[in-house]
Amino acid sequence: MAKTNIDYAVVGQHPLSSKRVLSDELISLQGPMTKSRYSKQRRVIKYYDEERQKTLTFLTNNIKLADATIARIYQWSRWQIELFFNRIKQNLKIKSFLGTSKNAVMTQIWVAMCYYLLLTHIKYQIKYGFSLLQFSRVIREMLFERKALIDILTLNRGRLKMGREEPIQAALF
After folding, report:
1. Where are the chain's structural domains?
2. What one-character-per-residue DSSP string does the chain give?
3. Strands 8-13 and 42-49
4. pLDDT digit string (tens) for 32-90?
5. Strands lying side by side in the sheet with 21-29
């Protein structure tokens, strides 16, 4: 969805293909930073959503697709995108991205997904009875213990606590 304070100039219009589409304008961005970063023309499509009785404004760089198609893509895919990022935050434990480039974001997502899938696979293979969150916590807490992973994961909670009380390294005298 487009922000309401975008500084732009209308340079043309596309013909409307649906009664729900209120306007389909070809624009160029006017802000000093945005003009230098985004020199190509964009489209602003205003669409009336009858279900929610709300006017939605979409900003896109796709000049070729029909306005109603773009509106449907944004309207329905937007929720899927929201769910995707919600799942990333909950399951992959990504609270913020370490970098801002596309490569940095994609690398962080792929590493988190590999970790999540690996944990899920191990949990399934050893028939671990607790939740994936609990499993992740056990792995994190026992990461520097000098014990075999399979031994740690097959312990019950009582024996797991007893295992933590053993010293990691012999004391030096």
Report:
1. 8-91, 102-164
2. ---TT--EEEEEEPPP-STTEEEEEEEEE-SHHHHHH--S-EEEEEEEETTTTEEEEEEES--SS-HHHHHHHHHHHHHHHHHHHHHHHHHS---S-S--SHHHHHHHHHHHHHHHHHHHHHHHHTT--S-HHHHHHHHHHTTTSSS-HHHHHTS-HHHHHHHHTS-SSPPP-
3. unpaired
4. 877 777 778 888 898 888 888 888 888 888 888 888 888 888 877 777 878 877 877 77
5. 8-13, 21-29, 42-49, 54-60
